[in-house]
Amino acid sequence: MSKKTKTAFVCEECGADYPRWNGQCTACGAWNSIKEVRLGAGKSERNKRTDGYSGIRSSVQALSDVDLAQAERLSTGISEFDRVLGGGVVRGSVTLIGGAPGAGKSTILLQAIADMARRGIDVLYVSGEESLQQIAERAHRLNVSGERINMLAETSVQNVCDVLDDINPQVLVVDSIQVMYTQDTDSAPGSVSQVRESASYLTQYAKRHNVSVFLVGHVTKDQSLAGPMTLSHIVDTQVVLSSTNDARFRVLRADKNRFGSVGELGFFAMDSTGLKEVKNPSAMFLNRAEKPSSGSVVTVLWEGTRPLLVEIQALVTECQYGNPRRLAVGFDQNRLAMLLAILSRHGGIFTANDEIYANVVGGIKVTETSSDLAIVVGIVSSLKDKIIPHDTFFFGELGLNGEIRPVANGLARINDAAKHGFKKAVIPKSNAPKKAIEGLRIYPVANLAEALDVLGEVEC
């Protein structure tokens, strides 16, 4: 007598499980997203997980006895890619790279594995969306030698693992995880259950056989990673490749990294021969107009492990209607409202009847508070139509009492700006260097009132 097929009801949006069908998912609020999924009568022998991802049963041991040997890393041959990964890809790790269509996900991976193959590292590129001829044409356009790159057109993870057993590569690329499926789950490829199970299956194989795996993932229309949230939990590293306002440039950001820092950025320029590294990203975001204008201010951000100079623009204009707008692009809108309140209370500058627009040039998203002083200075510059010279930069966090707080890595920010030719710096008093820096005049300020007084000295 055959075993009865088990079924489950799973939300396609968030992956929540239900004992019966519902019209609305109570976890994410989506309507008509719960679908019936048939569960296989039994798991395949390969997919047993009683021993965990590593393939062996773990034993109890003292924390002090754990081996602290650093994990072996493989260089991708692209220094900006290695930087984002934390120094290279760790053996046996799983890296998920997401991005919008045309961002360059397949391009950067093809360039990386081509360099690895040239250095004698065995690689396998599994394509589930494009034909092998399409990939060969891309490799020819990128001037990539494909002599040592093994290719496979397959969408079944069981069949992929069978091929891996035969050729034993060190690096595996799966393009993309959304089209892969496992034979033990009776649902369509791309569904929540298939994406989750396929990623778990490949992760289990990677840990057991010490294979470094790259998974290509699609994004939704709101630029979030498609698939269940558990996909992000399964992988070791998650990076996103996105475009800036200038379509020629790409930014690679680490959103999750078990082997390196989160928030690390890598910068690339896209041309007809692929992605090229940008060694000086500050120059990419400081392409300013030759004639200085009011409302334009430079600040120094800290992204990952390095400083980054960016331009912040502010525009203050008279309100034409009854409700003035406050619009922030590139940083938190609520923080803009807070900075305006501080400016009114401790700076004596009122903007309640003005419309205010603030923008971080280049499409960079500011996630730290070191840009507070630059934003306020930009607003004051636009309001009073006073020009800030191109050779002056600002950074510092503003407190609710009007004090200017120090920021991390202040000296490294100052030195980087000095290397780019800046002559004047308005910074928190606590970040002032003990030794003078040649060619750079420092204006240390303790509160907002002092910073506004300094503006009269640095204005054009």
UniProtKB/TrEMBL annotation:
It comes from Methylotuvimicrobium alcaliphilum (strain DSM 19304 / NCIMB 14124 / VKM B-2133 / 20Z) (Methylomicrobium alcaliphilum). One of its GO terms (biological process) is recombinational repair. Pfam families: ATPase, ChlI, Zn_ribbon_LapB. The middle region has homology to RecA with ATPase motifs including the RadA KNRFG motif, while the C-terminus is homologous to Lon protease. Residues 355-460 are annotated as: Lon-protease-like. GO terms for cellular component: cytosol. InterPro entries: AAA+_ATPase, DNA_repair_RadA, KaiC-like_dom, P-loop_NTPase, RecA_ATP-bd, Ribosomal_Su5_D2-typ_SF, Ribsml_uS5_D2-typ_fold_subgr, Rubredoxin_2. NCBIfam families: sms. A motif (RadA KNRFG motif) lies at residues 256-260. This is DNA repair protein RadA. Transmembrane segments: none annotated.
